[in-house]
């Protein structure tokens, strides 16, 4: 049995300015650094074998801070996987949230991405909407986004680690929850202080818990 404890990276400047932040990689703001330390203290007693993150700096920096607060820090192995990156918004990278949604979805109905999801859009359809609206065709397709995340979780599940810390991104975490535990997924994107737990038993991945507030 493997448990994967998933948290979102600390708050960044693009989060502060309400910008779409996919592969764009703004640094953590002081509040984000402090939040990562607080999350680390909340998880200090967890006996992690492995700490994983995407290769984006906001995630890897958060991972390192959380591990630094852990009582078993010297025993925790680290792993970065590019496949665990946030969704790539392409042309819409760093757009203001509302402006990007309006231009991509051709409506004022969805000021936030979560509003489209709550109105029946799947992650695949939402990503494909950005891709179709991207004049350069660079935004990631839904199939590409979902398949790399699914493969990444399955890759972590066979590392042999019993307890894994995974530092990820808001859309990435929500998409994983939607694939492996649609009955548990929340109506909001995960916040910086929340925890999702994945259970892997006999090769099957399920969402044990979504959205637990840690501080």
Automatic annotation (TrEMBL):
Binding-site residues for substrate, renumbered to this chain: 8-15, 58
Residue positions of the active site: 9 (tele-phosphohistidine intermediate), 86 (proton donor/acceptor)
GO biological process: negative regulation of glycolytic process; regulation of pentose-phosphate shunt
InterPro entries assigned to the protein according to its UniProt record, in alphabetical order: His_Pase_superF_clade-1 (IPR013078), His_PPase_superfam (IPR029033), Phosphoglycerate_Mutase (IPR051695)
Keywords in alphabetical order: Hydrolase, Isomerase
Name this polypeptide is given: Phosphoglycerate mutase
EC numbers: 5.4.2.1
Any one annotated GO CC term: cytosol
Record-level Gene Ontology MF annotations: fructose-2,6-bisphosphate 2-phosphatase activity; isomerase activity
Organism: Lactobacillus equicursoris 66c
Alphabetized SMART domains for the sequence: PGAM (SM00855)
Lineage: Bacteria, Bacillati, Bacillota, Bacilli, Lactobacillales
